[in-house]
Amino acid sequence: MTRSVAIAAICCVLVLAAAGCSGGGGNHRGAKSPGKTPVRTSVAVGRPQSAILALPVGRSSAQFRITAPSPAQYEFDVTVSAPASADIGVSIHTWYGAILPSILDSTHDQAWCQVRGLQETCFEQFPLLPAQRAGTWSVVASKRSGPAAKVRVAVVFAKPSG
User: Fold this and answer.
1) What was the pLDDT predicted at 31?
2) pLDDT digits (tens, 9 = 90+) for 112-136
3) Contact predicate 44/67, CB 8 Å
4) Cα(132)–Cα(94) distance, rounded to whole angstroms?
5) Which of 30-34, 41-45, 85-89, 119-123 has the least mean pLDDT?
6) CATH number of the CATH domain containing 80
7) Do residues 119 and 82 make contact, with C-beta atoms less than 8 angstroms apart?
8) Dihedral of CA 21/26/27/33: which sign?
9) Do residues 77 and 156 lie in contact, with contact meaning Cβ atoms separated by under 8 Å?
10) What is the pLDDT of residue 122?
């Protein structure tokens, strides 16, 4: 099973679980859930949505928000740049409770990352994810241990080619 197929399968299971737990969106007062507003595709497509996250000494994490257009219509790329000495993982949390845990398991993964000098740069492409929904997502970078580090994470959504 390829990594893309495995990620898509995991995402489908997570969405089904989240839908079952959430009662279909909204809250007990009938208000709309965060992220239910229409996504302005022109803002979210083709432009990097990025942040430089400061992770303090030891085990730590930081996050930033992105606007995701429909993952059923747009693929996305994730680029992570961090000090080569840091071991960083990246996940995405959606507004409706789904977690995409394997965006990047480790910046030390040689299949996705390259060391250049003192920096490590990782690049991964993700396919269409028809089970996921548009809206505000949180990108979370986690450091397992070690010295403080500044990590740049960028997400770019694009129409599939072909």
Assistant:
1) 38
2) 999 999 999 999 999 999 999 999 9
3) yes
4) 9
5) 30-34
6) 2.60.120.380
7) yes
8) positive
9) yes
10) 98
Q: Which tokens is 116 given?
A: 């250049």
Across residues 6-14, what is the average pLDDT?
A: 41
Query: 3-state SS string over the chain?
Result: CCHHHHHHHHHHHHHHHHHHHHCCCCCCCCCCCCCCCCCCHHHHECCCEEEEEEECCCCEEEEEEEEECCCCCCEEEEEEEEECCCCEEEEEEECCCCEEEEEECCCCCCCCEEEECCEEEEEEEECCCCCCCCEEEEEEEEECCCCCEEEEEEEEEECCCC
Number of domains in the chain: 1
Bridge partners, residue 100, by sequence:
92
Give the amino acid at 132: Q
**Mean pLDDT, rounded, of the chain:** 81
- The whole-number average pLDDT for the span 14-22 is 38
Domain with 91, as residue range(s), is 3-158
Tell me the pLDDT band of 44, cut-offs 50, 70 and 90.
Answer: confident
Query: How many whole angstroms from its chain centre is CA 66?
Result: 9
